[in-house]
Automatic annotation (TrEMBL):
This is Helix-turn-helix transcriptional regulator. Transmembrane segments: none annotated. PROSITE patterns: HTH_ARAC_FAMILY_2 (PS01124). InterPro entries: DUF6597, HTH_AraC. Residues 230-254 form the HTH araC/xylS-type domain. It comes from Flavobacterium zepuense. Pfam families: DUF6597, HTH_AraC. GO terms for molecular function: DNA-binding transcription factor activity; sequence-specific DNA binding. Coiled coil: none annotated.
Length: 284
């Protein structure tokens, strides 16, 4: 298993309300990316990445963008970098992407959307400054100052509702959320798609899936029947397989063999070839 060295920076001041963390990754990068609830902004200061469908025998496609948004991809994909990995990963909190992007959040789903489609030209100047930085702390501060400056001219009036939605979606029904917000189902659907990229029901499924990944990876020896809230085990297995192409048992087996997965449950640091060999060796 390839473990990528990383350094984490926690935003200060205004930015911490919108960004959970900024991570710098370096060295060789490869892995399997699974669906997640949030979006990330990537500023690549190394070699270009290549992506491919995890379960199709097809050539990998080069991502020539140097800055992009990774959205809520519905299908897992394989990521590889034959050169040197060096990039800053900005973890945008759920619902906060519209404060950084000029395009609807839903347009970032299932793709790596290059900054030329959603950012201002000065973001590319930020990248050049990051490349010239003498140390990581200076790079983190550059990013913090840049995005804080962008946020200071934004209208924060919707923040209260976004934060409520982010906390309410995992536990509350659509009807309960509508009652608290005083809105119709149609308005709630539109707001959820605008800020989060998917309707509430879809988001609830993604949130639940992320919780399953985290729970299994933390303790891969526990009973799978105890971790889910589906009507029965069959529904849990079908939902998990629809999102990943593997069963919960296979994911649990991966976590047993590669305990480092617990640090990044949605990203498995294995090559596509190694992953597929493992799944074939341990069928459902």
């Amino acid at each position: 298993m390839v473990t990528m060295p990383l350094t984490t920076y926690l935003p200060q001041g205004l930015l911490k309300e919108f960004v959970s963390s900024i991570v710098y990754l370096e060295d060789m990068g490869m892995g399997i990316a699974l669906q997640r609830v949030y979006q990330t902004i990537i500023i690549n200061t190394g070699s270009n990445f290549y992506t491919s469908d995890l379960y199709k025998d097809e050539p990998a496609k080069e991502n020539s963008s140097v800055i992009w948004i990774n959205g809520q991809h519905e299908r897992p994909f394989a990521l590889e970098n034959p050169g040197k990995t060096s990039m800053y990963v900005i973890g945008v909190k759920p619902g906060m992407l519209p404060y950084f992007s000029k395009v609807p959040v839903a347009e970032t789903n299932g793709t790596a959307l290059g900054a030329e489609h959603w950012a201002e030209p000065d973001m590319f100047k930020l990248r050049h400054k990051l490349i010239a930085c003498e140390n990581l702390q200076a790079g983190f501060e550059l990013i913090d100052n840049y995005f804080t400056g962008k946020l200071e001219v934004q209208n924060p009036s919707a923040l209260q509702n976004i934060n409520y939605l982010s906390k309410a979606m995992p536990e509350n029904t659509v009807q309960e959320i509508c009652m608290v917000l005083g809105c119709t189902r149609k308005k709630l659907r539109a707001d959820a798609i605008y800020y989060f990229g998917s309707p509430v029901k879809n988001m609830q499924g993604i949130i639940r899936f992320g919780e399953h990944l985290a729970t299994i990876s933390r303790d891969p020896y526990q009973s799978l029947s105890s971790i889910h809230t589906f009507y029965d085990q069959a529904h849990f297995i079908n939902d998990f397989k629809a999102r990943t192409g593997m069963t919960p048992s296979q994911y649990r087996m991966l976590c047993q063999h590669y305990p480092e997965i617990r640090h990044t449950p949605n990203f498995i640091s294995l090559s596509k070839e190694t992953f597929l060999q493992f799944i074939a060796k341990y069928p459902a």
